[in-house]
Amino acid sequence: MATQFFSSAEIQELESWPAEFGRDELVRYFRLTAEDVDWVNRTARGAPNKNRASSAAVCVAVAWLRA
């Protein structure tokens, strides 16, 4: 039998982005490292700039979600 550890509200919060980010969080999670920039440049080589922005968004989203 399955047991629910989190309430519906807690699950919704865990599955979504927060309404606001603090300055420390922005600096820590939403800044590309040199390695991130290299990856974006390699994966988006020859692609339009919007593809580079999408790749950069993936980098910062993964960093946030891993925290």
Detailed description of the structure:
- 63% of the residues lie in helices and 0% in strands.
- The protein has one domain.
- The chain contains four helices and no strands.
In short:
The protein is an all-alpha fold and 67 residues long. The chain is built from four helices and no strands. The mean pLDDT is 82.
| Uncertain residue ranges | none
> What overall form do the CA principal axes indicate?
elongated
* Helicity range: 55-70%
End-to-end Cα distance, whole Å, is 30 Å
Number of strands: 0
Largest sheet report:
none
Rg is 16 Å
Keywords:
elongated; mainly alpha; 4 helices; 67 residues
How does the SSE layout of this entry go?
Layout: H1 8-14, H2 23-29, H3 34-43, H4 49-66
